[in-house]
Amino acid sequence: xxxECGAVANRNFGTAVAEQNFDPEILNGWGxxxxxxxxxxxxxxxxxxxxxVDFTYFRRWYGNFNxxxxxxxxxxxxxxxxxxxxxxxxxxxxxxxxVPDLYDVSQAKFGITDNITTLAKNYGKEVRMWNGFAIxxxxxxxxxxxxxxxxxxxxxxxxxxxxxxKVPEWTITDVLGPYxxxxxxxxxxxxxxxxxxxxxxxxxxxLELQVSSTLQSLSGPEIFANxxxxxAQVVPTLGRNLAAGRGATVTVNLVKLDLRLARAVRVGRTxxxxxxxxxxxxxxxxxxTMSNAYATWQRPQSIILARFAxxxxxFDF
Length: 317
Known about the structure:
The protein has 317 residues and is mainly beta. The chain has a domain at 21-192. The protein is 6% helix and 52% strand. A 9-stranded antiparallel β-sheet has the order 2-3-8-9-12-13-16-17-20, with no helix packed on it. Strands 1-7-4 form a 3-stranded mixed β-sheet. The chain has a two-stranded antiparallel ribbon with strand order 5-6. A hairpin with a 5-residue loop joins strand 8 (127-140) and strand 9. The relative contact order is 0.14.
């Protein structure tokens, strides 16, 4: 319950009303399920003996998305407002900018729901598409050394702007967070990712001592700044209190090296390989996840594992 009068957020509470309804169009027929298509093309070429490079292009796109539409409201039942981000040197341009295109349902329609799950294309175009490429190189040298390296780079494009204009109450969330909803104005997102990997191995002659190393660099976590905005900050642009009441708030988003040493020992027909693995040999402290709540914004919540070692043995006979 929230609001100055303690109104129940769902007015159907305690009544015999179906909370979820499904459009028959998505339940039967051909081509109604969510699908994805992928196109891949690649080439590989030997540059010099034992050295090759390859290039691959990837494109994947999705379709037949579903949407939950509250038929009890229309776009006309929502009023636009904006908020001003706080001044903060960590925010773009030091903060103080305006975040527009936020919506709040009318007080008369607050808490009324009549949801139906149907096809998103009935309301407009939804885009979810990945474009990327991979470049790799591999070399097997005469002295028995192996070297490999690769770079993967791409962008995930998502767009639901046409649908949001007609169904502003609809909130859609993926693994990276919400990118549509009444208080999420970023209905078009471009999320680039970069991944670099390299490895090498070499067996020291006579000693049969194998030395190998791997290096991996990944894109960091998606950054959000979820700012809790009180009703008083909304009133000047909305022209009224939030539908949930004077005490309500809205949340707005403001914006590895591994090393291995191995020693092979032969006893008759049995071969024993002793391994010493040193993980995170560079002892980095890369942040893996961080807080997206503005009050504790960018406070690390987990970091890459610390440097540690593992000893093992493998028998082949």
